[in-house]
Amino acid sequence: MLRYIGKRILSLIPVMIVVSFVAFLIVYMIPGGPASSILGLEATADEIHALNAQLGFDRPFFVQYGDWIVGVLHGDWGNSYFLHESVSTLLGEYFLPTISLAIFAQIIALLISIPLGLIAAYKRGTVIDITAVTVSLIGSALPGFLLSMFLMLALSVYNHIFPVAGYADLSQGLGEHLKYLFVPALSLGIVQAAYLTRMIRSSMLDVLYKNFIHTARAKGLKEKKVLLVYGLKNAAPVILTAVGQSFGSLITGTIVTETIFNIPGLGTLTMNSINRRDVFVIQGVVLFVTLLYVLVNLAVDILYGFVDPRLQPGRK
Amino acid sequence: MKNRKAIRVIALAMCATLLFAGCGGSGKKSSSDNSASTAATETKDELHIAVSANPPSLDVQTSNSSLVGEIAAHVFEPLFAMDDKYEPTPVLAESYEVNDDGSVYTIKLREGVKFHNGKEMTSEDVVASMNRWIKNCSRAKALLEGSVFEAVDDYTVTLTVNKPASDILMILANPSMFAAIYPKEVVDSATEEGISEYIGTGPYKMTEWKQDQYVKLDKFEDYKNSDNATTGLAGKKEAATPTLYFDVVTDVSTRMAGVQNGQYDIAEEVPTDNYEELSNDKNLKLDVTNGGTLNLFLNTTEGIMANEDMRQAVLAVLNCEDILYASYGNEDLYELNAGWMNLSDAQWSTEAGKEYYNQNDEKKAKELLKKAGYNNEEITLVTTPDYPEMYNATLVLQEELQKIGVNAVVDSNDFNTFMEHRSDPKQFSMYITSNSYALLPVQLSALNKEWAGLDAPEVTEGIDAIRFADSTEDAKTAWENLQTFLYEDGAASVIGHYTSVNALNAKAEGYEFLRYALYWNTTVSK
User: Fold this and answer.
1) 3-class state of residue B183 by DSSP
2) Check whether domain B48-258+506-524 has CATH 3.40.190.10, yes or no
3) pTM for the complete prediction?
4) Which of A67, B252, B348, B429 is the Cys-Cys partner for B379 at CB 3.0 to 4.6 Å?
5) Beta bridge partners of A79
6) Per residue in B63-83, pLDDT tens?
7) Is residue B112 over pLDDT 80?
8) Which residue ranges make up each domain of chain B?
């Protein structure tokens, strides 16, 4: 098991090098350096060129990339041109809102999707099933930003139940923290629930007609036990994969929701740093997000072993 | 079959629910209107101002971002600032004298003014700050390079100027990239990236800056207030609301929703699309102020655009009213006027050269094209959708040019790429930008050869004629001639004057706007 984990982590190194190279190259190739963002619309060409040169942005690609990679190997991820802080500090600061939002959204998604998926599979072909499938299809088709806007209008603008936007740190209390995160988490959770409901329903359907389920019923076990213990446990690997992917996308891809709700998370940082051509921050975010995604998948692989020992990594 | 029918019914029900969520709120809104009308005399302790971006720094001496200027105006103060009639007025200066030939200004400083760190401001802080400003602020450098501040005693400094001119005090009082006075230690420890501590003498001190979230300013209890009435950027500053939050809300819909819901007391930069909706909201009032000019800049050096007849053809076809309507969507939000300067500035506002403005004459334009020998060369209009008014104006301009047979192509990119393309004369034929008002004509982007490449001796001579004129009347005449030259040369044209719209809580009082929104006397009843 440990060997397997070690191997997976080692395989990250070439991935990270390729990803960092490509990201750096893309940013290098886009016209306009960070100076335009710092100086604003009315800056003259001279001022922009002078500041870009001062920041070292006029040097050849390999010199810039080489400098950066040497820094990273020494534990220095560089500094933000715009925010005047080190990239590692920024990642730490901006990751907390994102992870909080992702966990909250994932909980909402699971609270909606597990009962809905189970009931839809159990009551296959009935109105309940059709409703669940239709709702989840609409949820999948609905653009996240539109849903966010609808929820913001309904819960914040017309009814002042939740704040429109913003973020309260955990240090201000859990209640305050969740109050700001509820609407964005609901918006993300609904979209994820739509996907998870369909996955849970179909994986349960695969299991519910297997012989061991018939046997369990023939033994006279209660339906609840058949469904939750025999059914859900055997459908778990597929569900776990879906939840892993869903969580991975939540911690790495909430740019739109974070922008709409003004949450200072990784999504906002990514968007702003691209707009500002804040190259070291872009690099930092890309690598960090790659790392997170790989780690989430690794965690899912390891969890397989717990729900089904036959799938334990490294087992022959 | 039965299943399909059920699916259709459910699908319809879902759509209806979503529609109700979107539209059904107006009734609820009116009920909140009623509750909001409860009279109250107590004012809020915190003011939340939703701004559209995270400021890149608060080093106002070197950043020409309007947002930086606005926040900094509450934290830092200059020696002189503009009053509401655009006259330089002492702020940290007590008085001043000029010698006979206008080469030396002796400035007495106010005594007992404290910085936010408790230290008293003296001449060493002023000398360090002002010399840094002349060296690092591009606008000051262009006009005052070689001028030097020196200390005479603790409360007196002298400014020896590079060349005597009539506008020295105006330059010192310019609100854009203003000459903020920092403590000497802050100036000494500044790096190439700017100052690292934000310590000023203003009515508010900066207490917290959460990047991409907010800048928090708290009342400075030891602020030495002026005895004079508030006027523009000078006079009394009360810090009437103890805490100001400049909340960074980049998404415009969120900014508008937040001010409607009451989470923000003020939302800056109301988009023109929301103007009518917000002006009908009883909980809000809108502040509409002249903000600057929407301008067209033409390439004067490369390809067919170097031909003056070609540029005049472009000016001849311009229908400024159509362009402004497309950009701002409401007649209340723009004004047609050929002048480059603030319309309320009696000294500089002029319509000289208006015969070239808003001509909307296709026939004349076609004749000029023929005269220029135009042969379907590609004319590139660079723009960015990040500034919707500039983008919309460019699309209308493209259509107007195509109507007279010009092969006009729009090159639309994100902001940074746009800035790169518009700074290289090989990459653009013309572009439109919205520029906030300059205080002095000599500071206009149009006259800066680095802006759109206009490098004509008439410009340099015109600038000198304005700066070194014997009287204000002569200076105005010189500016009228220079503005006429800009039109005659076809180097640039004003399209119109735009307004800045901010939405305020209807219970806000004491808000003022001069170049920036000023909140030091603003309160909002609870």
Assistant:
1) coil
2) yes
3) 0.82
4) B429
5) A86
6) 878 899 999 999 999 999 999
7) yes
8) 48-258+506-524, 292-498
